[in-house]
Amino acid sequence: MKSQIHLIRHGITEGNQRRLYYGAADIPLAKEGERMLKELVAEHIYPEAEGSDFYTTGLIRTEQTLTLIYGEKEHSVIEELREMNFGQFEMKSYQELKEVPAYIEWAGDKTGTFASPDGESIVEFRKRIENGFDILMGRHRLKELSVRHSGKDAFSTVVCHGGTIASIMEFYFPGKREHFYKWIPDPGHGFTLDVKAGDVLNYGEF
Prior knowledge:
Rossmann fold; two-stranded antiparallel sheet; His_PPase_superfam
């Protein structure tokens, strides 16, 4: 039996185009994001969806991405897998923030424990993602058990965020890449995790 979890980053948004800090902001895909996803679908880069359980984080950009890739699919929401909340820095650029004392202090933090005003710290973010992935893995494990004797495969497909995916990948494959940011896939791309009985074994990219 094949057992896989597909992690897909949502398509391009205004936040990506303008290089803004955003995670909690519920913004839609940009027109470019919609166009690019349609092109990627035409290139057949996405994992098979037959029999998959589908998930989003409930934010509009993940909902739109799921629909553009796989059509209208019944799915569940795991809010714990949302992108980092940047608090008062949301929807602002480096140029807008570079002289703000709170931003300077936050950006210079090497411990990961300093939260942006009204936002969350890196440590808090990673713990939330760990909890969210535990929820997902628990549901996927039930999927594995439900198809174990049927000869079918177990697939779970999650449309989420770049920071979310990087956090998951760095947790399971420490030292494989030199920096957290090297794990962030391009918009519309992601990773397939091969799993067995709740363990992540290896990965592939798409």
